[in-house]
Amino acid sequence: MELTDEKILIYTEDTHYGFTLCIMEILLRLDYKNLFLATYENKYYVLKKTRPDLIEKIRFINLKNLPSFKNNPMIRIYNAFHNYQKISGVINNENIKKIIFLESNEVLFKIFNSIKSFRNAEKILVVHNLNDFISYKIIKKFFFEYKLRKSTFFDRIFFKKMNKFVVLNETLKQNFELYFDKKVYVLPFRIAENQIIKARSNFLLKRLPILKFTVPGFVHCDKKNYKEIIDSFKKFSKDDYILTFLGKVVDYNVVRYAIENGVNVKYYIDYVSEEEFRKEMIESHFLLGIISDKLPYGLFKTSGIEFEGPSFGIPTIVNNENIISEKGIFIYTDNLQDTLKKIFEDFKDGLYYEKYGKPAYEKMFSNTLENYLDIMKRILEE
Predict the structure, then answer these.
(1) Is 173 a residue whose pLDDT tops 60?
(2) Cα of 26 vs its chain's centroid, Å
(3) Taking a C-beta distance cutoff of 8 angstroms, is the pair 262, 241 a contact?
(4) Average pLDDT over residues 269-279
(5) How would residue 145 be classed by pLDDT, with cut points 50, 70 and 90?
(6) Which is higher by pLDDT, 292 or 373?
(7) CA 173 – CA 186 distance, rounded (Å)
(8) H helices present in 288-371, as ranges
(9) Radius of gyration over alpha carbons of the chain, in Å?
(10) Disulfide-capable partner of 133 in 159, 205, 221, 293 (CB 3.0 to 4.6 Å)?
(11) Tell me: domain 194-366, CATH 3.40.50.720, correct?
């Protein structure tokens, strides 16, 4: 049997649609024909609507949604166990050879898996946050200034049952190897898709009269410094820009503060569909990654902004040097207001395309699918 005839199950529970599509597209391009996707029905339909050409080639395992443990503890336990049993049945009945866990957030699933793991399949885990699996004693000793979630006994047991690991950038790979004697690979959170490259090229030809700045992700202050962003934009004319908060508003105080300070802000009360997310991103001049210093981004955690700029061809303004990579055009700032002032001046002088837009667009071609095929082959075959 050829390796591409092996059956692979992809398990995902989060709303990282771009990452899920990235993994599936790479596997299909490598000609893996027998792919199974275990996820919730609502996520499956978002993926199907976004990329029907991929989803129609993959067999769907419908998992039960998990209600709040606080509100419905018995239903949550029952549904989590049902999901575990359903996946276990598919693995045994279909002779699944490999499982790729795209996340590992669901505690009950990890507990069931820790007690009785899927023994007959090679298990590959994507690690988004290293602190989820490192002893709290180590974190407290070396990273005491950060308020990190403590890893549990079952986190570490679940981790030990994995055969291979994937992280999302080279810095996390280096830090992973400091703490674990495990084989680890690097894959991106998003890739530059051909249709996005074409759409981005069309956008850059439009030469719009005002600048559009976008802050992707849920709107709350735990991860991003919205106050600094708003305080910087309020110094400029509303006629010169639009600032888009591209994610569900979790903390409406952020929006209220922007409105009270006369900032030209666009925002979404509810979840942003993947389709709408892509459209807003493609039509952005700059992304803003002014992240909070409360979390160790670039050390133990990755930020989506690190991949969204390169995959959409958008120059990205950041205040953390640890998330800058050669895969995109990043503008480091320690004074956002001054950085914006220079950008507005360049835009009025007609310099946006040559100085910012074109270089970021050209970087997209180093983030396409073809650049990661060999890495995935090694993950599956070594």
Answers:
(1) yes
(2) 16
(3) no
(4) 90
(5) low
(6) 373
(7) 7
(8) 305-312, 336-348, 352, 358-363
(9) 21
(10) 159
(11) no
Span 300-309, pLDDT tens digits? 777 888 899 9
Question: How many whole angstroms separate alpha carbon 81 and alpha carbon 191?
Answer: 34
- Reduce the DSSP state of residue 215 to 3 states and report it: strand
Q: CA 143, 131, 214, 218 torsion: positive or negative? A: negative
pLDDT, tens only, 342-380:
999 999 999 999 999 999 999 999 999 999 999 999 999
Written as six digits, the tokens of 71 are 């509100």
- Kindly give, in sequence order, each residue whose CB lies less than 8 Å from that of residue 72, ignoring residues fewer than 6 positions away: none
Q: What is the pLDDT of residues 29-77, one digit of tens each?
A: 999 989 999 999 999 998 999 899 999 999 999 999 888 878 888 998 8
| Cβ atoms within 10 Å of 42's Cβ, excluding its own | 11
Distance of alpha carbon 5 from alpha carbon 305, whole angstroms: 35
* DSSP summary character for residue 33: -
Taken in order 109, 110, 113, 119, the sign of the CA dihedral is positive
Structure tokens at 42: 């609502």
| Torsion region of 95: left, alpha or beta (phi above 0 gives left; psi -120 to 50 gives alpha) | left
Domain boundaries, the chain: 3-191+369-381, 194-366
Write out the two tokens for 320: 């953390």
The whole-angstrom distance between residue 107's C-alpha and the CA centroid of its chain comes to 20
CA angle at 11 for the pair 7 and 16, rounded to the nearest 5°? 130
* CB-based contacts of 161-165 (< 8 A; 24+ apart in sequence): 161/113, 161/114, 161/117, 161/123, 162/101, 162/123, 162/124, 162/125, 163/122, 163/123, 163/124, 164/122, 164/123, 164/124, 164/125, 164/379, 165/124, 165/125, 165/126, 165/127
DSSP H helices, 107-218, are 107-115, 136-142, 153-160, 170-179, 194-204
> Can you read off the two tokens belonging to residue 336?
């956002």
Q: For the chain, give the mean pLDDT.
A: 88
Q: Taking the domain 3-191+369-381, which CATH number applies?
A: 3.40.50.2000
Query: Whole-prediction pTM value?
Result: 0.87
